[in-house]
Write a structure and sequence with these properties.
ClpP/crotonase-like_dom_sf, DHNA-CoA_synthase_MenB, EC 4.1.3.36, 13 strands, alpha/beta, binds Salicylyl CoA, 4-stranded mixed sheet, lyase
Length: 270
């Protein structure tokens, strides 16, 4: 992996290799819990990977073998969110969730150890999850006075079914990797020592496929759940593809050349 020297992140790492970006939450002393700064840096890193034409697939992971992420840092939880350095309270992880969901490249959660609370929702939001055999999953919200009724509830129900999703939230149990696989919460489970090799193999396989097909498919999976925002995402791909056609370009050219557009030259296909 190459370290990104341009960034001066405190809470995360950004690495890249072979058209893969690897974004790592680096707060192992708190099981990779996030604070507002962590989330701000993650948003910046995902933005970077999104815009980099050399990157096809993104991995999200946690430093060390004990945790992927344990959710919001409870030590700095104030009365209306998680406090930053100047005392402003945030729930900016919700913005990060939307970003991971809508950025047009596959995002793979690489989970060793705990994916708990808001950290569990982060892996859920990722397109695929590769789990090590020591991974443990669960929500804690009702135990610690919190909940995620957005994607945390709705996407969970779509992923594992309504009954199981309610069990996960209502009982706050933890599930091991085999149980997570059985309920469709993860894509595969591998020995801890093989976690990164296997994850990279999945990423390489996706990178050999058509980026446009993957892009449109990702937005298609969102379209039926995300209402007009989902349709906007899917339709944006249609617009971008239309821009690449001679028919789309005729409209732009005619405007720039101050003439009437000639759309008659294009077929009206059945
Ligand atoms: C993650 C888990 C299950 C790990 O257990 P274990 O036994 O392996 O470790 P331990 O001893 O609990 O944790 C090690 C150190 O990490 C800190 C602990 O306090 C401990 O610190 P020291 O005693 O060594 O000083 N730590 C762990 N998680 C932390 C956290 N989230 N914030 C701050 N410090 C944390 C176990 O630690 C656990 O259950 N952690 C809490 C999980 C949790 O409840 N997360 C918040 C859920 S709410 C949320 O994330 C959220 C939301 O619901 C809606 C919007 C946004 C966020």
């Amino acid at each position: 992996w190459q370290t990104d020297k341009a960034s001066d992140y405190q809470d995360i790492y950004y690495h890249s290799a072979e058209h893969i970006a690897k974004i790592t939450i680096n707060r192992p002393e708190v099981r990779n819990a996030f604070r507002p700064q962590t989330v701000r840096e993650l948003i910046d890193a995902f933005h970077r990977a999104h815009l980099d034409p050399d990157i096809g697939v993104i991995i999200l992971t946690g430093a060390g073998e004990l945790a992927f992420c344990s959710g919001g840092d409870q030590r700095i939880r104030g009365e209306a969110g998680y406090q930053d350095d100047i005392g402003v309270e945030h729930l900016n992880v919700l913005e990060l969730q939307r970003q991971i969901r809508t950025l047009p490249k596959p995002v793979v959660a690489m989970v060793a150890g705990y994916a708990i609370g808001g950290g569990h929702v982060l892996h859920l939001i990722c397109d695929l999850t590769i789990a090590a055999d020591n991974a443990r999953f669960g929500q804690t919200g009702p135990k610690v006075g919190s909940f995620d009724g957005g994607f945390g509830a709705g996407l969970m129900a779509r992923t594992v079914g309504l009954k199981k999703a309610k069990e996960i939230w209502f009982l706050c149990r933890q599930y091991d990797a085999a149980e997570a696989l059985a309920m469709g919460l993860v894509n595969t489970v591998v020995p801890l020592a093989e976690l990164e090799t296997e994850t990279v193999a999945w990423c390489r396989q996706m990178n050999r496929l058509s980026p446009t097909a993957l892009r449109v498919l990702k937005s298609s999976f969102n379209a039926d759940t995300d209402g007009l925002a989902g349709i906007q995402e899917l339709a944006g791909n249609a617009t971008a593809l239309f821009y690449t056609t001679a028919e789309g370009q005729e409209g732009r050219n005619a405007f720039l050349e101050k003439r009437a557009p000639d759309f008659q030259q294009f077929p009206r296909r059945p």
